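Example for tutorial group B:
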């Protein structure tokens, strides 16, 4: 047997292999790491700035929502007092007792609601003020209205001399502000409302007007700042601030001057004034505020005529975030430099152990190409993976690779086939169960529908005869029917009640005949519309309303049907609080296993609650819970409407602690039957 001689490595190729290996190890690091640092510095800085702008945009939305909530609360408070029985009784007293009663009532309400003024204006006085005071003019037309207006010093003095004195604000020189030669701002930024006051017969007795002066209202601005920037909301030692501007002058702020005093009387920069007050845009960018740079958000405040009269501002110190960004970038650069250094050292040290086997293999391949069939790599003095590769250079490596590739391909094919068959089987089982459940439900509804339709037909015929003969009886008797008019009216009402019961039975039994147009419905607007429809019931009792809209999702359903369900729950809640209470309305997300499913609408009252016995029958037909004016079908039909969309209604109640109804709605109905 011919002896196979080892092939010695060639000096010229040694240098080439070594250089290439070192370049292969170090060049990617030398190019990629600096490029990554540059990209990270550029993209990361821009992304960080966008995050800050997004944060301040969200802060401005929170501040705007709080300002609107305060405005709405002021309007509801004054409107509620204007329509209260106490005020009507006080106005019916003789002159002197009336004046004392009105003073006590208004002083108590003003202190309770923390108003700066609350006045009752008789009809003659409100007539004189209506032309110059828009909210009074609206109240005289029967419309309660809340606005933010600028009042002159004389107008404030007519309301209360103390307000005019409080509104006076010396103007402080401010860098980068628009030139203004005034030395003092005497006008006031007033959040005020007016509501009509009517007597027992609906006649206008006057106007109730009240409001809050925002100039130097430190409690209001500190509360707004605490809501937008609670403790711990801003990391890295940053501080949040909030400000109200009258025109471009800070009249209420927690921005501090150098000595720790509030920067009341300083003015906004000319660039911000141009963008917000002159052009009406919302400013979302960095801005120099008094003595430092802040990530700032400004939005214009509008009066009753849509004129821009001031600004609402929130922002936080930019310096701590910039310092953190620079520190993070420095740490990243330092880590990359350290990685480069360590990688270079280890590449040079460990590459020496790789050079010799690779060079021998290169020489062997070159010898085989030149026709030396006995050329072999030979012993390389290495017992690692390179030594194994050198000894099995040709046949074993190719064979093992081919076998491994074939085995892997076969295994992947088998796994994919098993997974596909398993998925098909699971889907078939799920479809079978769904079809079986739907078939059982359809059979039940078909039987109920047939029975209900027959009963409704048999009831409607005699009811129609009774109604017709009742009308004929009333026409024939004429005036002679007056002694029994209440009895005839009672019969008519009971006939209509029977019709309503039959209609609700049909709506439950044949829901496909009552399905309406489906559209995306927003919970907040739906709740507001429903409150308007039950407003007359709310005014009859001392009921406070709390609204929490924590969801902005939309659901696909019929608006009228969902509004019917919501109004039914609202009416039940109001009737459960005859002595007054708190009505809570909540819209929140419905998620399961961290996946969005839909939304949840909650109607909660602070009434007497529902007993366990009544709770078990709550969704049964014709159960009225001792109410004499109901059909007992409201909750029954409401449950059928919600279940038809794949949702549900749940109730949670404790005796003496109120009741909480929750309506669970999916984004899209699961099995709603649409009309052809």
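The residue assignment follows.
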């Amino acid at each position: 047997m011919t002896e196979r001689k080892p092939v010695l490595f060639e000096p010229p190729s040694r240098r080439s292999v070594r250089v290439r290996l070192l370049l292969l190890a170090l060049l990617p690091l030398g190019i990629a790491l600096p490029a990554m640092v540059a990209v990270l510095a550029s993209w990361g800085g821009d992304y960080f700035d966008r995050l800050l702008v997004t944060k301040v945009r969200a802060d401005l939305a929170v501040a705007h929502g709080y300002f609107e909530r305060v405005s709405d609360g002021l309007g509801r408070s004054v409107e509620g007092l204007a329509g209260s029985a106490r005020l009507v009784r006080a106005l019916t007293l003789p002159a002197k007792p009336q004046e004392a009663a009105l003073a006590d009532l208004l002083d108590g309400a003003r202190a309770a609601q923390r108003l700066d003024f609350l006045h009752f204006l008789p009809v003659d006085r409100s007539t004189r003020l209506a032309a110059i005071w828009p909210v009074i003019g609206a109240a005289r037309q029967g419309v309660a209205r809340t606005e933010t207006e600028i009042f002159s010093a004389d107008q404030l003095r007519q309301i209360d001399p103390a307000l005019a004195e409080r509104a006076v604000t010396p103007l402080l020189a401010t860098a980068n502000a628009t030139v203004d030669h005034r030395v003092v701002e005497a006008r006031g930024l007033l959040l005020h409302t007016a509501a009509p006051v009517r007597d027992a017969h609906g006649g206008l007795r006057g106007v109730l007007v009240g409001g809050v002066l925002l100039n130097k209202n430190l409690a209001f601005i500190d509360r707004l700042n605490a809501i937008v920037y609670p403790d711990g909301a801003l990391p890295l030692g940053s501080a949040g601030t909030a400000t109200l501007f009258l025109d471009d002058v800070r009249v209420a702020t927690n921005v501090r001057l150098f000595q720790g005093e509030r920067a009341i009387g300083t003015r906004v920069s000319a660039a911000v004034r141009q963008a917000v007050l002159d052009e009406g845009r919302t400013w979302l960018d960095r801005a120099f505020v008094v003595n430092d740079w802040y990530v700032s958000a400004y939005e214009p405040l509008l009066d009753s005529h849509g004129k821009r009269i001031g600004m609402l501002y929130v922002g936080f110190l930019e310096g701590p975030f910039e310092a953190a960004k620079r520190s993070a970038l420095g740490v990243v650069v330092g880590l990359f430099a350290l990685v480069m250094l360590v990688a270079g050292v280890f590449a040079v040290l460990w590459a020496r152990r790789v050079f010799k086997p690779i060079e021998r293999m290169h020489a062997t391949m070159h010898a085989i190409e030149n026709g030396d069939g006995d050329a072999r790599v030979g012993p390389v003095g290495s017992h690692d993976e390179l030594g194994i590769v050198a000894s099995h250079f040709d046949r074993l490596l190719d064979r093992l690779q081919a076998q491994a590739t074939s085995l892997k391909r076969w295994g992947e094919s088998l796994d994919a086939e098993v997974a596909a068959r398993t998925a098909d089987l699971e889907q078939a089982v799920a479809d079978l169960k769904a079809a079986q459940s739907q078939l059982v439900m359809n059979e039940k509804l078909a039987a109920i529908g047939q029975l209900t339709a027959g009963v409704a037909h048999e009831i409607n015929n005699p009811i129609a005869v009774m109604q017709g003969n009742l009308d004929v009886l009333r026409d024939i008797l004429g005036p002679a029917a007056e002694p029994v008019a209440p009895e005839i009216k009672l019969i008519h009402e009971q006939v209509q009640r029977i019709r309503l019961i039959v209609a609700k039975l049909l709506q439950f039994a044949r829901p496909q005949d009552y399905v309406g147009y489906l559209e995306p419905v927003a919970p907040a607007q739906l709740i507001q519309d429903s409150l308007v429809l039950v407003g007359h019931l709310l005014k009859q009792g001392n009921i406070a309303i709390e609204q929490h809209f924590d969801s902005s999702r939309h659901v696909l359903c019929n608006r009228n049907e969902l509004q019917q369900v919501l109004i039914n729950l609202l009416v039940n809640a109001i009737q459960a609080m005859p002595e007054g209470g708190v009505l809570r309305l909540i819209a929140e997300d419905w998620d399961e296993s961290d996946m969005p499913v839909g939304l949840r609408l909650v109607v909660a009252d602070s009434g007497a609650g529902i007993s366990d016995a009544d709770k078990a029958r709550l969704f049964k037909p014709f159960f009225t819970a001792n109410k004499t004016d109901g059909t007992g079908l409201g909750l029954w039909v409401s449950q059928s409407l919600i279940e038809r969309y794949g949702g549900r209604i749940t109730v949670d109640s404790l005796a003496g602690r109120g009741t909480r109804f929750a309506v669970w709605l999916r984004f899209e109905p699961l099995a709603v039957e649409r009309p052809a």
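The longest helix spans residues 395-477. Compare this with the pattern of hydrophobic and polar residues in the output above.
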